[in-house]
Amino acid sequence: MDKGHVMNSIPIILITGYLGAGKTTLMNHLLTLPEVFEKKLALIINEFGKLGIDGSLVKPGDYSKFELNKGSLFCICLKTDFIKTLEKVFNDIKPDLVIIEATGIAETSDLEDLLKVPVLEDKFHVSANICIIDSLNFVKVLPYLKAVKSQIQWADAIIINKTDLIPDTELCNIQDLVKSMNDEAPQLPVTMGKIPFDFISSINHRQLSGSLIKSAPESVFSLSFQTDGIISRTAFMNFLKQNQKNILRLKGYLRFDKKAITFVEIVHEKLFENRVESQSNQNLGFTVIGWQVAKEQFQNHVQDMLLSPLDFRK
Q: End-to-end distance of the chain based on CA atoms, in angstroms?
């Protein structure tokens, strides 16, 4: 996995994958592997939104965590912040391993060019670019979103996740389709992102040339909203129904009553909810990634929802 690099340079495992594919689940699985958690670790979580929801979902542990929430790390807009973060990681942490989770809408390129800037040169190297795909929804999103194809083409290995949710014939079709886009990357069908470390250690990183994108796709935007208290569940559900075709991803913590906080997320128009223990330090709010609608119009819909009367009076 780490052949041909400067001795003592720090390896980076990069995790990419479209929205809802299971990147955070994969990272949490890696953090249970002795070959990973016994190392001195630094995690970098890259989100398109500003609230840092994904960072709060990463398994607690003895590691240093950094969040980059202003865009994609493969975008020029985040280049300076990313370089400063890695510089801090090297100077202050000096980890054995860095794991980076990229935002789901990242149009991937190779991080190696970023690592060649003078302040980082010979300090880090990419040991593996792992792309995880959602087998249940992969065929649906591939024709419409450039990032999905880009992530596969740049990957050193491809994890086909959620295979328990599809028939074997569909899995074979997906494997053939993925191979047509990248015939060099080994594939591994899994459930819940559970990959063995032997597979990771066998990955060979391919250095490819490519430039950073200049901005996020024009049709895609991110909005983050913080809420101070209880919001109307009825208004929230009506908002989702009204805008379901324009929501690529929604994730956050909301309070619909005084008893509990609910973690909500939308993956490919499906709503998942999980009531969590109320924590005084838990920020309430959500990040939504929208597309194919005017950003201001969408923002107005959210504001109307947040200002709606409550379902009860207590």
A: 59
Which residue type is seen at 260?
A: A
Give 10-residue mean pLDDT values along the chain (314 residues).
70 93 95 96 84 76 90 76 94 97 82 86 94 93 85 96 96 97 97 96 86 64 85 93 91 88 89 78 83 91 86 47
Q: How far apart are CA 131 and CA 23, in angstroms?
A: 9
pLDDT in the model for residue 212: 63
> For the chain, which domains are there?
10-201 (3.40.50.300), 220-306 (3.30.1220.10)
Strand ranges for the chain from DSSP E: 10-16, 41-46, 63-68, 97-101, 124-134, 157-161, 187-189, 220-226, 247-254, 261-267, 270-276, 285-291
Backbone region of residue 183 per phi and psi (left: phi > 0; alpha: psi in -120 to 50; beta: other values) = alpha
Identify the bridge partners of residue 255 per DSSP, sorted by sequence position. Answer: 230
Determine the pLDDT at residue 314. 40
pTM: 0.84
Please report, as a single letter, which amino acid is at residue 36: V
Q: Distance between CA 155 and CA 151 in Å, rounded? A: 6
Q: Which of 244, 249, 255, 258 is nearest to 224 (CA)?
A: 249
How far is the C-alpha of 148 from the C-alpha of 170, rounded, in Å?
18
